[in-house]
Write a structure and sequence with these properties.
single chain; 472 residues; globular; 12% strand
């Protein structure tokens, strides 16, 4: 007697992406309490710069005490604040921070900003605003597994993949966009937009100017929307630098056009500041109708006024934000290089990347067969034998088996080093087993060949040995 929403299986919780988390939670690694446990490398959290935030809090205790700079209590004001438009001070600070991440090349209007309880809520709210049940969004593969939940589960929308390939580093192409659109038409789906995550999760690459131009031209010709999820924009730690979709609109002189009204940004502080538990997300849109509707919907998932106040204090300190962004990028780059070099020692490569909290790891050469069954077989060995939870490419809808996402910013340097030691031992063990297997096959083949020889060959061979012995 329950609703279809309860009984359906469209949440995606049975994906290997989430199953890996469940296995980790049953047996979590701890250096002292459980050294043989599973190391969590499937969680894209940024834990590298907490000390910077904690240091700021220690120097600015009035922010946590809910007091202003005159030491007057503002607790009552915050406790009674219920306006779902959000605290003006926080929205002003947030748009300035977004602009700072983009090098000040563009500015954002706080009136176009809608606060949500994280990026998950922002993406779902935008989907409700832009699509009806049964309408579709095109997403480039591989994509974040949670999008199956965020965009589809409650909204009734559909996802049609834009198939990208390792041949060009999984870059978006015009032909891939057109093929996805045609595929949606074959399925009798009305395409309402394209959604991209820039930078990509799981690839760890930011979109190129060429790709962004393609996207703008495509949505313009098809008269559809473009959602640019930019929650990793502050994690770009090496060239090429991050380019926001808003910069592209500005450079094309499209800022005040109908096209700009069909371009929307999703942002969050979960990755750039490493605060997923604070549930701070945002929608930025130039369409007043979208802003109005999304603001009303946000009442189902508001950001607490206390959280808004604290973050407005932190983000308003421009000396801190400048230092934080620079140092956080340096630490991410250092940790990224540690993962890449550690895997390289085991003969494992990664897709070249410049951002994010993870690497897209190429383990195709370790597959028992070039199939998704072979990928799942390898994934289970890595989870249960090696003790690492990484995300298989199939959970990200990758069209090629053998790719995996491995996170590097949610653990200590010592834990990552230990994870790399486990990988090395596993790969060495596989190589030894393969060599033994090949040797055994060769021995069996020679044995079968010997048994198949006629009797006179053995007699002749024995006779020749006697002649050689007599000659000596």
């Amino acid at each position: 007697m329950l609703s279809e929403k309860v009984t359906c299986n469209s949440h995606g919780q049975d994906s290997s992406y989430f199953l890996g988390w469940e296995e980790y939670e049953k047996n979590p690694y701890d250096e002292f309490k459980n050294p043989n446990g599973i190391i969590q490398m499937g969680l894209a959290e940024n834990q590298l710069s907490f000390d910077l935030l904690q240091s700021w809090l220690e120097k600015n205790p009035q922010a946590m005490a809910f007091r202003n700079y005159n030491n007057q209590s503002i607790f009552k004001d915050l406790a009674l604040f219920q306006d779902y438009h959000g605290l003006p001070a926080f929205k002003n600070a947030l748009v300035k921070f977004m602009s700072e991440i983009r090098g000040g090349s563009i500015s954002f209007n706080p009136n176009n900003l809608v606060l949500t309880a994280g990026a998950t809520s922002a993406n779902e709210t935008l989907t409700f605003c832009l699509a009806n049940p049964g309408d579709a969004f095109l997403l480039p593969t591989p994509y974040y597994p949670g999008f199956d939940r965020d965009l589809k589960w409650r909204t009734g929308a559909e996802i049609v993949p834009i198939q990208c390939s390792s041949i060009n580093g999984f870059r978006i192409t015009k032909s891939a966009l057109e093929d996805a659109y045609k595929q949606a038409e074959k399925q009798n789906l009305k395409v309402k937009g394209v959604l991209v995550r820039n930078t990509s999760n799981p690839l760890g690459t930011s979109l190129s100017l060429h790709e962004l131009d393609l996207l703008v031209n495509f949505i313009s010709s098809r008269n559809i929307h473009l959602v640019s999820d930019e929650i990793y924009s502050g994690t770009v730690f090496s060239s090429p630098s991050f380019i926001s979709i808003m910069e592209v609109l500005k450079n094309k002189n499209l800022t005040n056009t109908d096209i700009a009204k069909r371009v929307h940004i999703v942002y969050s502080l979960s990755k750039d500041l490493g605060l997923p538990g604070f549930r701070i997300g945002a929608i930025y849109s130039n369409d007043e109708r979208v802003v109005s509707a999304a603001t009303k919907m946000s009442s189902f998932g508001l950001v607490s006024s206390q959280t808004q106040h604290l973050l407005s204090e932190i983000l308003s300190d421009q000396n801190f934000t400048k230092t934080y962004l620079s140092e956080n990028r340096r630490r991410l780059k250092e940790r990224h290089e540690m993962l890449v070099s550690g895997l390289k020692k085991s003969g494992i490569g990664c897709l070249p990347s410049n951002s994010g909290l993870f690497c897209w790891v190429d383990m195709r050469h370790l597959l028992s067969s070039n199939t998704f069954e072979g990928e799942m077989e390898l994934w289970k060995m890595i989870v249960y034998q090696v003790g690492l939870n990484i995300s298989p490419g199939s959970s990200c809808h990758c069209s090629e088996p053998g790719w995996f996402r491995a996170c590097f910013a949610n653990m200590s340097e010592q834990t990552l080093d230990h994870a790399m030691q486990r990988v090395k031992s596993f790969v060495d063990s596989m190589a030894k087993q393969n060599n033994q297997s090949r040797h055994q096959k060769l021995m069996n083949r020679n044995s079968r060949r010997t048994k198949s020889l006629p009797k006179w060959v053995f007699e002749l061979s024995f006779h020749q040995q006697e002649i050689v012995a007599n000659e000596r």
